[in-house]
Design a protein that fits this description.
There is one protein chain. Helices cover 38% and strands 17% of the residues. It is α/β, with parallel strands linked by helices. It has 2 domains: 200 residues, Rossmann fold (3-Layer(aba) Sandwich), CATH 3.40.50.720; 101 residues, UDP-galactose 4-epimerase, domain 1 (Alpha-Beta Complex). The strands form 4 sheets. Strands 3-2-1-4-5-6-11 form a 7-stranded parallel sheet, with helices on both faces. Strands 7-10 form a two-stranded parallel ribbon. Strands 8-13 form a two-stranded parallel ribbon. Helix 2 packs parallel to helix 4 and helix 6 runs parallel beside helix 8. The mean pLDDT is 96. The structure holds uridine-5'-diphosphate. Uridine-5'-diphosphate (UDP) binds next to helix 6 and strand 8.
Length: 333
Protein backbone atom coordinates (compact mmCIF):
# COMPACT_ATOMS: atom_id res chain seq x y z
CA UNK A 1 0.00 0.00 0.00
CA UNK A 2 1.36 3.41 -0.95
CA UNK A 3 0.20 6.66 0.58
CA UNK A 4 0.78 10.11 -0.86
CA UNK A 5 1.14 12.73 1.90
CA UNK A 6 0.76 16.32 0.71
CA UNK A 7 2.48 18.71 3.09
CA UNK A 8 4.60 15.91 4.61
CA UNK A 9 7.41 18.30 5.58
CA UNK A 10 5.16 20.44 7.79
CA UNK A 11 4.55 20.11 11.52
CA UNK A 12 1.54 17.80 11.43
CA UNK A 13 2.33 16.20 8.06
CA UNK A 14 5.82 15.13 9.16
CA UNK A 15 4.37 13.41 12.24
CA UNK A 16 1.95 11.57 9.95
CA UNK A 17 4.79 10.38 7.71
CA UNK A 18 6.78 9.05 10.68
CA UNK A 19 3.77 7.15 12.07
CA UNK A 20 2.78 5.77 8.64
CA UNK A 21 6.33 4.46 8.14
CA UNK A 22 6.30 3.00 11.69
CA UNK A 23 3.21 1.06 10.57
CA UNK A 24 4.96 -0.31 7.50
CA UNK A 25 3.26 1.90 4.90
CA UNK A 26 5.13 3.02 1.78
CA UNK A 27 5.03 6.83 1.79
CA UNK A 28 5.48 9.48 -0.90
CA UNK A 29 5.61 13.13 0.10
CA UNK A 30 4.77 16.25 -1.89
CA UNK A 31 5.74 19.57 -0.31
CA UNK A 32 6.76 22.95 -1.75
CA UNK A 33 8.89 23.65 1.37
CA UNK A 34 7.31 27.09 1.70
CA UNK A 35 6.49 26.48 5.37
CA UNK A 36 7.74 22.90 5.66
CA UNK A 37 11.30 21.83 6.44
CA UNK A 38 13.51 19.43 4.49
CA UNK A 39 14.94 18.26 7.83
CA UNK A 40 11.45 17.14 8.93
CA UNK A 41 11.21 14.66 6.04
CA UNK A 42 11.48 11.02 7.02
CA UNK A 43 14.59 9.52 5.36
CA UNK A 44 12.56 6.53 4.08
CA UNK A 45 9.84 8.62 2.40
CA UNK A 46 10.21 9.38 -1.33
CA UNK A 47 10.12 13.14 -1.69
CA UNK A 48 8.75 15.20 -4.58
CA UNK A 49 9.37 18.92 -4.16
CA UNK A 50 6.68 20.95 -5.89
CA UNK A 51 3.44 22.83 -5.60
CA UNK A 52 0.02 21.19 -5.55
CA UNK A 53 -1.34 23.97 -7.79
CA UNK A 54 0.92 22.70 -10.59
CA UNK A 55 -1.31 20.12 -12.26
CA UNK A 56 1.43 18.71 -14.51
CA UNK A 57 3.64 18.15 -11.49
CA UNK A 58 0.87 16.48 -9.45
CA UNK A 59 -0.18 14.35 -12.46
CA UNK A 60 3.42 13.24 -12.94
CA UNK A 61 3.64 11.95 -9.35
CA UNK A 62 0.40 9.95 -9.71
CA UNK A 63 1.62 8.62 -13.09
CA UNK A 64 4.99 7.51 -11.72
CA UNK A 65 3.89 5.95 -8.42
CA UNK A 66 1.18 3.46 -7.61
CA UNK A 67 -0.75 5.39 -4.95
CA UNK A 68 -3.81 3.96 -3.24
CA UNK A 69 -4.71 6.82 -0.86
CA UNK A 70 -3.94 10.46 -0.16
CA UNK A 71 -3.56 12.39 3.10
CA UNK A 72 -3.81 16.10 2.43
CA UNK A 73 -2.11 18.56 4.83
CA UNK A 74 -0.79 21.04 2.25
CA UNK A 75 -2.43 24.36 3.06
CA UNK A 76 -1.90 27.77 4.60
CA UNK A 77 -3.29 27.66 8.12
CA UNK A 78 -3.02 30.96 10.00
CA UNK A 79 -6.27 32.72 10.87
CA UNK A 80 -4.71 36.22 11.12
CA UNK A 81 -2.73 35.90 7.89
CA UNK A 82 -5.82 34.62 6.06
CA UNK A 83 -7.62 37.87 6.90
CA UNK A 84 -4.77 39.88 5.35
CA UNK A 85 -4.29 37.63 2.30
CA UNK A 86 -7.68 36.05 1.51
CA UNK A 87 -6.92 35.47 -2.17
CA UNK A 88 -3.68 33.66 -1.38
CA UNK A 89 -5.69 31.36 0.93
CA UNK A 90 -8.32 30.65 -1.73
CA UNK A 91 -5.58 30.03 -4.29
CA UNK A 92 -3.36 27.73 -2.25
CA UNK A 93 -6.04 25.96 -0.22
CA UNK A 94 -9.11 25.81 -2.46
CA UNK A 95 -7.52 25.83 -5.92
CA UNK A 96 -4.73 23.51 -4.68
CA UNK A 97 -7.34 20.99 -3.53
CA UNK A 98 -9.21 21.32 -6.82
CA UNK A 99 -6.02 20.40 -8.71
CA UNK A 100 -5.34 17.50 -6.35
CA UNK A 101 -8.87 16.10 -6.76
CA UNK A 102 -8.61 16.48 -10.55
CA UNK A 103 -5.38 14.47 -10.53
CA UNK A 104 -6.96 11.84 -8.25
CA UNK A 105 -9.95 11.50 -10.59
CA UNK A 106 -7.63 11.01 -13.56
CA UNK A 107 -5.46 8.50 -11.69
CA UNK A 108 -8.45 6.59 -10.26
CA UNK A 109 -7.38 7.10 -6.62
CA UNK A 110 -10.49 6.76 -4.45
CA UNK A 111 -9.51 7.62 -0.86
CA UNK A 112 -8.52 10.90 0.80
CA UNK A 113 -8.03 11.84 4.45
CA UNK A 114 -8.26 15.58 4.81
CA UNK A 115 -6.90 18.04 7.36
CA UNK A 116 -9.71 20.38 8.43
CA UNK A 117 -10.24 22.67 11.38
CA UNK A 118 -12.45 23.82 14.23
CA UNK A 119 -12.32 27.22 12.47
CA UNK A 120 -15.08 25.86 10.18
CA UNK A 121 -17.54 26.36 13.10
CA UNK A 122 -16.69 29.99 13.87
CA UNK A 123 -18.14 31.19 17.19
CA UNK A 124 -19.87 28.02 18.43
CA UNK A 125 -23.50 28.08 19.52
CA UNK A 126 -22.70 25.58 22.30
CA UNK A 127 -19.80 23.62 23.75
CA UNK A 128 -18.63 20.91 23.52
CA UNK A 129 -18.82 21.33 19.76
CA UNK A 130 -20.49 18.46 17.89
CA UNK A 131 -20.08 17.86 14.16
CA UNK A 132 -23.80 18.56 13.74
CA UNK A 133 -23.45 22.22 14.81
CA UNK A 134 -23.78 24.86 12.06
CA UNK A 135 -20.60 25.90 10.25
CA UNK A 136 -20.23 29.68 10.17
CA UNK A 137 -16.53 30.46 9.77
CA UNK A 138 -15.35 33.84 11.01
CA UNK A 139 -12.09 33.77 9.06
CA UNK A 140 -10.98 33.25 5.47
CA UNK A 141 -8.95 30.29 6.68
CA UNK A 142 -12.05 28.56 8.12
CA UNK A 143 -14.03 29.42 4.98
CA UNK A 144 -11.41 27.88 2.69
CA UNK A 145 -11.35 24.63 4.69
CA UNK A 146 -15.15 24.45 4.64
CA UNK A 147 -15.10 25.07 0.88
CA UNK A 148 -12.55 22.28 0.46
CA UNK A 149 -14.85 19.92 2.41
CA UNK A 150 -17.76 20.87 0.13
CA UNK A 151 -15.61 20.34 -2.97
CA UNK A 152 -14.87 16.80 -1.77
CA UNK A 153 -18.57 16.15 -1.16
CA UNK A 154 -19.56 17.03 -4.74
CA UNK A 155 -16.53 15.29 -6.21
CA UNK A 156 -17.51 12.13 -4.39
CA UNK A 157 -20.98 12.22 -5.96
CA UNK A 158 -19.57 12.52 -9.48
CA UNK A 159 -16.40 10.45 -9.21
CA UNK A 160 -16.73 8.22 -6.14
CA UNK A 161 -13.70 9.57 -4.23
CA UNK A 162 -14.42 8.80 -0.56
CA UNK A 163 -13.13 11.24 2.04
CA UNK A 164 -12.69 11.60 5.77
CA UNK A 165 -12.38 15.20 6.94
CA UNK A 166 -10.79 15.65 10.37
CA UNK A 167 -11.53 18.94 12.11
CA UNK A 168 -8.61 19.67 14.42
CA UNK A 169 -8.82 21.65 17.63
CA UNK A 170 -5.51 22.91 19.13
CA UNK A 171 -2.74 20.56 18.06
CA UNK A 172 0.42 20.63 20.18
CA UNK A 173 3.25 18.41 21.42
CA UNK A 174 5.87 16.53 19.42
CA UNK A 175 6.90 13.00 18.57
CA UNK A 176 7.86 11.18 21.79
CA UNK A 177 11.41 10.60 20.49
CA UNK A 178 11.81 14.38 19.85
CA UNK A 179 13.26 13.80 16.34
CA UNK A 180 10.66 16.13 14.86
CA UNK A 181 8.51 18.89 16.31
CA UNK A 182 6.89 22.26 15.76
CA UNK A 183 8.83 25.03 13.96
CA UNK A 184 6.80 27.82 12.36
CA UNK A 185 8.41 31.08 11.14
CA UNK A 186 7.07 33.34 12.49
CA UNK A 187 5.52 31.37 15.37
CA UNK A 188 2.01 32.30 16.46
CA UNK A 189 0.87 29.21 18.42
CA UNK A 190 0.59 29.28 22.17
CA UNK A 191 2.61 26.23 23.26
CA UNK A 192 5.78 26.97 21.22
CA UNK A 193 5.60 30.64 22.25
CA UNK A 194 5.41 29.65 25.94
CA UNK A 195 8.40 27.31 25.54
CA UNK A 196 10.47 29.82 23.55
CA UNK A 197 9.87 32.21 26.47
CA UNK A 198 11.00 29.51 28.92
CA UNK A 199 14.16 29.18 26.81
CA UNK A 200 14.62 32.97 27.09
CA UNK A 201 14.40 33.33 23.31
CA UNK A 202 11.64 35.82 24.06
CA UNK A 203 11.93 38.29 26.95
CA UNK A 204 8.27 37.81 27.76
CA UNK A 205 5.08 36.60 26.14
CA UNK A 206 1.71 38.31 25.80
CA UNK A 207 -1.57 36.85 27.01
CA UNK A 208 -4.16 38.00 24.48
CA UNK A 209 -6.92 39.26 26.75
CA UNK A 210 -7.75 38.66 30.42
CA UNK A 211 -11.36 39.85 30.24
CA UNK A 212 -13.10 36.86 28.67
CA UNK A 213 -16.10 35.26 30.34
CA UNK A 214 -14.06 32.32 31.66
CA UNK A 215 -12.99 31.46 35.25
CA UNK A 216 -9.58 33.20 35.01
CA UNK A 217 -10.51 35.60 32.20
CA UNK A 218 -8.26 33.99 29.55
CA UNK A 219 -9.36 31.95 26.52
CA UNK A 220 -10.04 28.26 26.87
CA UNK A 221 -8.90 25.82 24.18
CA UNK A 222 -8.94 22.06 23.67
CA UNK A 223 -5.38 20.77 23.18
CA UNK A 224 -4.74 17.49 21.39
CA UNK A 225 -1.35 15.73 21.18
CA UNK A 226 -0.05 15.58 17.62
CA UNK A 227 0.63 11.82 17.90
CA UNK A 228 -2.95 11.11 19.08
CA UNK A 229 -4.16 13.29 16.20
CA UNK A 230 -2.17 11.24 13.69
CA UNK A 231 -3.49 7.99 15.19
CA UNK A 232 -6.92 9.20 14.06
CA UNK A 233 -5.61 9.69 10.49
CA UNK A 234 -4.33 6.10 10.42
CA UNK A 235 -7.69 4.87 11.68
CA UNK A 236 -9.44 6.98 9.04
CA UNK A 237 -7.35 5.32 6.33
CA UNK A 238 -8.31 1.87 7.64
CA UNK A 239 -11.95 2.99 7.81
CA UNK A 240 -11.91 4.05 4.14
CA UNK A 241 -10.04 0.92 3.03
CA UNK A 242 -12.71 -1.16 4.82
CA UNK A 243 -15.45 0.53 2.79
CA UNK A 244 -16.41 3.31 5.23
CA UNK A 245 -18.56 6.12 3.85
CA UNK A 246 -17.38 9.71 3.61
CA UNK A 247 -17.52 11.41 6.98
CA UNK A 248 -16.44 14.36 9.13
CA UNK A 249 -14.97 14.03 12.64
CA UNK A 250 -13.78 16.45 15.31
CA UNK A 251 -10.41 15.72 16.87
CA UNK A 252 -9.93 17.21 20.31
CA UNK A 253 -9.71 15.97 23.87
CA UNK A 254 -13.15 17.00 25.20
CA UNK A 255 -11.42 19.16 27.83
CA UNK A 256 -10.47 22.80 27.89
CA UNK A 257 -7.55 24.67 29.45
CA UNK A 258 -7.08 28.42 29.79
CA UNK A 259 -4.03 30.29 28.53
CA UNK A 260 -2.98 30.87 32.17
CA UNK A 261 -3.34 27.16 33.00
CA UNK A 262 -1.12 26.30 30.04
CA UNK A 263 1.55 28.76 31.23
CA UNK A 264 1.41 27.45 34.83
CA UNK A 265 1.74 23.85 33.63
CA UNK A 266 4.69 24.82 31.41
CA UNK A 267 6.42 26.48 34.39
CA UNK A 268 6.10 23.19 36.30
CA UNK A 269 7.29 21.05 33.38
CA UNK A 270 10.27 23.25 32.50
CA UNK A 271 11.18 24.47 35.99
CA UNK A 272 11.56 27.96 34.43
CA UNK A 273 9.77 31.19 35.12
CA UNK A 274 7.73 32.42 32.14
CA UNK A 275 7.36 36.22 32.20
CA UNK A 276 4.03 37.44 30.83
CA UNK A 277 2.33 40.70 30.04
CA UNK A 278 -1.39 41.09 29.54
CA UNK A 279 -2.28 42.39 26.10
CA UNK A 280 -5.42 43.14 24.15
CA UNK A 281 -7.72 40.46 22.83
CA UNK A 282 -6.58 39.00 19.48
CA UNK A 283 -9.23 39.76 16.85
CA UNK A 284 -11.30 36.73 15.92
CA UNK A 285 -10.49 34.66 19.05
CA UNK A 286 -13.61 32.94 20.46
CA UNK A 287 -13.52 32.66 24.26
CA UNK A 288 -14.00 28.89 24.54
CA UNK A 289 -13.49 26.07 22.02
CA UNK A 290 -13.92 22.51 23.25
CA UNK A 291 -14.57 19.53 20.99
CA UNK A 292 -16.83 16.62 21.38
CA UNK A 293 -14.79 13.80 19.84
CA UNK A 294 -17.31 11.07 20.67
CA UNK A 295 -18.05 10.49 16.99
CA UNK A 296 -14.38 9.76 16.16
CA UNK A 297 -14.18 7.46 19.18
CA UNK A 298 -17.29 5.54 18.26
CA UNK A 299 -16.94 5.26 14.49
CA UNK A 300 -13.16 5.27 13.98
CA UNK A 301 -12.36 3.61 17.32
CA UNK A 302 -10.05 6.52 18.20
CA UNK A 303 -8.54 6.18 21.66
CA UNK A 304 -6.29 9.14 22.44
CA UNK A 305 -3.79 8.24 25.17
CA UNK A 306 -1.66 11.38 25.56
CA UNK A 307 -4.48 13.55 26.82
CA UNK A 308 -2.92 15.33 29.81
CA UNK A 309 -1.60 18.81 29.08
CA UNK A 310 1.45 17.92 31.18
CA UNK A 311 2.29 15.14 28.68
CA UNK A 312 1.62 17.42 25.71
CA UNK A 313 3.86 20.17 27.12
CA UNK A 314 6.55 17.67 28.20
CA UNK A 315 6.84 16.28 24.68
CA UNK A 316 6.84 19.77 23.15
CA UNK A 317 9.54 20.78 25.69
CA UNK A 318 11.70 17.75 24.82
CA UNK A 319 11.69 18.93 21.20
CA UNK A 320 12.20 22.65 21.90
CA UNK A 321 14.91 22.17 24.52
CA UNK A 322 16.82 19.71 22.33
CA UNK A 323 16.29 21.84 19.18
CA UNK A 324 16.45 25.42 20.49
CA UNK A 325 16.82 26.73 16.92
CA UNK A 326 14.15 24.39 15.57
CA UNK A 327 15.27 22.94 12.26
CA UNK A 328 18.43 24.98 12.36
CA UNK A 329 17.78 28.63 11.60
CA UNK A 330 18.64 30.97 14.43
CA UNK A 331 16.12 33.73 13.74
CA UNK A 332 12.55 33.11 14.85
CA UNK A 333 11.02 35.43 12.23
N1 LIG B 1 -2.43 33.07 22.79
C1 LIG B 1 -1.90 34.02 23.66
N2 LIG B 1 -0.63 34.49 23.41
C2 LIG B 1 0.11 34.08 22.34
C3 LIG B 1 -0.43 33.11 21.47
C4 LIG B 1 -1.71 32.64 21.73
O1 LIG B 1 -2.54 34.43 24.63
O2 LIG B 1 1.24 34.59 22.17
C5 LIG B 1 -3.78 32.54 23.05
C6 LIG B 1 -4.76 32.81 21.92
O3 LIG B 1 -5.40 34.06 22.10
C7 LIG B 1 -5.72 31.63 22.07
C8 LIG B 1 -4.84 30.49 22.61
O4 LIG B 1 -3.67 31.14 23.13
O5 LIG B 1 -6.71 31.91 23.03
C9 LIG B 1 -4.43 29.51 21.54
O6 LIG B 1 -3.90 30.24 20.44
P1 LIG B 1 -3.19 29.53 19.21
O7 LIG B 1 -2.75 30.62 18.25
O8 LIG B 1 -2.15 28.59 19.69
O9 LIG B 1 -4.35 28.64 18.55
P2 LIG B 1 -5.83 29.01 18.01
O10 LIG B 1 -6.75 28.81 19.16
O11 LIG B 1 -5.79 30.41 17.48
O12 LIG B 1 -6.04 28.00 16.94
Amino acid sequence: MSILVLGGAGYIGSHAVYQLIDQGEHVFVIDNLETGHKEALHPDASFYEGDIRDIDFVRSVFAKESIDAVIHFAANSLVGESMQKPLQYFDNNVYGTQVLLQAMVEAGVKHIVFSSTAATYGEPESVPIMESLPTKPTSTYGETKLTMEKMMKWTEQAHGIKYVSLRYFNVAGARGTAEIGEDHRPESHLVPIILQTALQQRKEMTIFGEDYDTPDGTCIRDYVHVEDLIDAHLLALTYLRNGGTSNIFNLGSNQGFSVKEMIQTAEKVTGKEIPVQIGKRRPGDPSTLIASSEKAKQILGWNPTRTSITKIIEDAWNWHSSHPTGYGRNDLS
